[in-house]
Amino acid sequence: MAPELRKDPTSGTWVVVASSRSRRPSDFKITHGEQKKGVCPFCYGNEYMTPPEVFASGRTVDAPNAEGWEVRVVPNKFPALIPDHEDSINLGNRHDKLYTGIPAVGIHEVLVESPEHDSTLGSHCKSRIEDVLTAIVARFDAVKKDNRIKYLQIFKNWGLAGGASLSHTHCQLIAVPIVPKTVQNKLDYAKQYKDTTGRCLYCDILRREIETKVRIVRESRSFLAFCPYASKFPYETWFIPKNHKAAFEDISKDEIVDLAGILRNVIRTFESAFDDVPYNMVWHTSPLKGDFNQYYHWHIELLPRLTTIAGFEFGTGFYINPTIPEAAAASLRGDPEA
Questions:
Q1: Which residue of 8, 119, 146, 249 pairs with 140 in a disulfide if CB–CB is 3.0 to 4.6 A?
Q2: CA proximity to 248, closest of 263, 234, 230, 235
């Protein structure tokens, strides 16, 4: 198939799909590097090495910051943003014709998914992933009480190439006092589509993917996992709820159970298809303040780091994806001719 330029309908970014370059999982050579060694602060018995926890589940006794937890959330020891900025009063907001700045007030937390050091997201039991998702919802509810916070970003880095410096499986939560431009861009695209068509952009994408079936990876009662039409990365996979909701924290208990199952299924497929593939997982949800339910639709993006972002991508905003999404989805489904 000849190379093709595809436009992502949710952001307007362009992707070069160059399917002749490579397409199978075995075509990608993953380079592994060493992560930090030594005593792991996320393992049982080392709770003293982290700041005091802000959430924990699984203990049968009331013993904060002790062993016995299943999922644990702690402030990041080296945060990118802090809740009580020492200059937040004196510095204030700086706006002039050239430079604009505000204090880096926010929240940076680590969600430790398991006390087992060598576990992975795919090796977790389904109930453990349910606990992880429930913990994320709990942190959303807590962060919302801080009126300074406008957006909460949930993400997971796996592997050195994915940006993880510690090998113990974990997610991160960073709450910021502004709505990031990338988030605002997706909101604007969704609103423009709603204003033009009267329909939700993501609901239309869901319908199209279910109709054509060629990019579906897995489907459950409440969720669809598929390789998006304009995938930026080889084997990029999105998880979208079939029930229209703008905010992840509005997920129901039944949906948590269903999402845990499809996440585990797809991640296990990735872990068996690739040699410990590095990846990023990113939650896309609406800002904490405002009504976005008419036109936005939360979703999760799984972004395998099988290629390198280099000069062309940085210079143009185009991505080069060597694996056509239709072939990637077929391979992940296990189609014999993929």
A1: 249
A2: 263
Residue 241 β-bridge partners: 223
For this structure, is 170 an active site residue? yes
Q: Tokens 């087992």 map to which residue? A: 116
Of the two residues 64 and 80, the one the predictor is more confident about is 64
CA atoms within 13 A on the CB side of 265: 18
Distance of alpha carbon 336 from alpha carbon 238, whole angstroms: 23
Query: Would you list the domain boundaries of the chain?
Result: 4-21+37-333
The whole-angstrom separation of Cα 273 and Cα 23 is: 13
- 3-class state of residue 241 by DSSP: strand
What's the rounded Cα separation, in Å, for the pair 300 and 294?
19
The Cα 284–Cα 258 span in angstroms is 18
The answer to whether the CB of 156 falls within 8 A of the CB of 304 is no
Task: Return d(Cα 228, Cα 141) in angstroms, integer.
Answer: 30
What CATH topology corresponds to 4-21+37-333? HIT family, subunit A (3.30.428)
Using the structure block, give the residue that is written with the tokens 């409440």. Answer: 222
pLDDT digits (tens, 9 = 90+) for 135-191: 999 999 999 999 999 999 999 999 877 777 788 999 999 998 889 989 999 999 999
Q: What is the pTM of this model?
A: 0.90
In terms of residues, how long is the chain? 338
Q: Which of 170, 284, 297, 299 is catalytic?
A: 170
> Closest by alpha carbon to 132, among 66, 57, 75?
57
Q: Centre a 10 Å sphere on the Cβ of residue 117 and count the other Cβ atoms it contains.
A: 13
Radius of gyration of the chain (CA): 20
Rounded Cα distance between 171 and 187, Å, is 24
Q: How far apart are CA 236 and CA 322, in angstroms?
A: 12
